[in-house]
Design a protein that fits this description.
four-stranded mixed sheet; 3 domains; four-stranded antiparallel sheet; 33% helix; alpha/beta; globular; 289 residues
Length: 289
């Protein structure tokens, strides 16, 4: 996030940078500069900052060796930049690829932190889950999270403690235990622990049980790739099987490219021209409105 709360991001994902001829340094440089400007702002009073780079499905889905080399290049760039600045630190273990479960959990934590449910006492309207007996330990005051990312889809949401043990559909491997401490709890802990050493302070933390699942290959960009392949093959099959395809306006040749009419429910409303690339060929498709 920048100084006014806007997300700073690079597109496409880091897993694509070598495909479009950009180096790792050129890709990461704007992000590093944005972070540096934020940290150096006097009003934030940040003494030091740790840099973490966590790659997700784009790297997970590529060749393992290629992904490792790419992340090593990124680590070397960050180490070089941090060595020039006293405020910044980076360690080897802070740069790497995370699995889908970690990705979903980090997303859930980030969303709920921004919305205040992890730092404040927040009451959220929620619907009762049918067919389970509640208990005093049940306390679900957080927001659910869904990330329709590039290569994968993540969902994460908190479940009532008693529901976890009553549902045959939930396994221990699906649940992540997250300890949180609201600002009010921190203040109460400080009042109780006045004059005590830090390791003697009793923390009144709350346990949250977060269900996390990741679906590899179901991300927005990956699904569009699948849709693209289906539509192109549909176009090709129509042209092959319809002798009147060109005479009837279904398709035409333009600049040595196939230009065809497509009608598909997954294309956004208002889009009238999509360019597909498949197996080295380019297809221009004009969509029926």
């Amino acid at each position: 996030m920048d100084q006014i709360g806007q997300a700073v991001h690079a597109f496409p994902g880091i897993g694509n940078i070598k495909l479009i001829g950009e180096s790792v340094r050129e890709y990461l440089s704007p992000l590093f500069i944005a972070a540096e400007n934020y940290i150096d702002n006097d009003r934030h009073k940040i003494r030091s900052a740790n840099f973490f780079l966590r790659a997700t499905s784009g790297i997970r889905m590529m060749d393992f060796t290629k992904g490792q080399l790419l992340m090593q290049d990124a680590l070397e760039y960050l180490q070089e930049q941090c060595s020039k600045r006293k405020k910044f630190r980076v360690k080897n273990e802070w740069v790497g690829t995370i699995d889908g479960r970690e990705e979903g959990l980090f997303g859930w934590i980030s969303a709920n932190y921004i919305l205040g449910s992890l730092t404040e006492n927040v009451t959220i309207n929620k619907q009762q889950i049918n067919n389970y007996q509640s208990s005093p330990e049940d306390n679900v005051d957080s927001y659910g999270f869904i990330d329709f990312g590039g290569g994968s889809l993540q969902i994460a949401f908190e479940l009532p403690y008693s529901f976890i043990h009553q549902s045959a559909m939930i396994t221990p491997a699906d649940i992540v235990h997250v300890e949180v401490e609201t600002m009010q709890q921190k203040l109460e802990s400080l009042e109780k622990s006045y004059g005590k050493e830090d390791d003697q302070i009793e923390r009144d933390k709350q346990m949250k049980y977060v269900y996390v699942r990741s679906f590899e290959g179901w991300g927005r960009e990956r699904m569009f790739d699948v849709l693209q392949e289906e539509m192109v093959y549909e176009i090709v099959n129509k042209i092959r099987n319809d002798d009147d395809a060109f005479d009837g306006g279904l398709a035409r040749i333009e600049d040595n490219k196939i230009v065809a009419v497509v009608d598909h429910p997954c294309i956004p409303v208002g889009v009238d021209n999509v360019i597909f690339h498949l197996e080295g060929l380019t297809y221009h498709t004009f969509l029926r409105q």
